Amino acid sequence: MPGTSMTEPIEQTDAGVLQLRRILLPTDFSGCANYALPYAAAIARAAKATVVCMNVVEPIVPAVGYTGMAEAMPIAEMSEQLEDSAERELPDVMNCEALHGLKVEEAIGHGDAAAEIVRIADEQNIDLIVISSHGRTGLGRIFFGSTAEAVVRHARCPVLVVKPPPEEEEEEE
Fold it and tell me: What is the CATH number of the domain that holds 140?
């Protein structure tokens, strides 16, 4: 019977070949976010893919009630500082040693992090999202949610979630 022997070559069709041309690497510039970087770089290097480094500037929700601050900082000023931070720090990620020699692009989103990651992935024809999980469990996960989990649920492309090493995971309080 043809094609059943372990020594016969298997024919690949164009439809069966996995092509990774564009990899999205979301970052919030935290230490945990850096754990995804070497994975994205290694996959991009092996697949000869472009890495799109992304940061999302999330809207600031004003605090209600007593905050303990003597004087509230204007929301517009805080938003501007977050935007400046993204524009200043994203090139540092793009020019890091791990991504050296790869084609790298940048993207900045505005709004809910998970929704913006999914939107950019769709708009830029991303083939794979490599995202870090902050390792929150229990109450921390309930209160802060999980961007990575929401991205996995809503993205149309595969998502690789990189967990921090066990000693780095945030412990349940």
Answer: 3.40.50.620
Dihedral sign, Cα of residue 132, residue 134, residue 138, residue 140: negative
Tell me whether residue 173 is in a domain.
no
Q: Model-level pTM? A: 0.75
Task: Flag whether 3 is in a domain.
Answer: no
**Overall average pLDDT of the 11-16 stretch:** 52
CA distance 146 to 152: 10
Residue 171 lies in a domain: no
Encode pLDDT of 145-167 as tens digits. 689 999 999 999 999 999 888 77
Q: Is 9 inside a domain boundary?
A: no
- Strand runs labelled E in the chain: 22-26, 50-57, 104-110, 128-132, 159-162
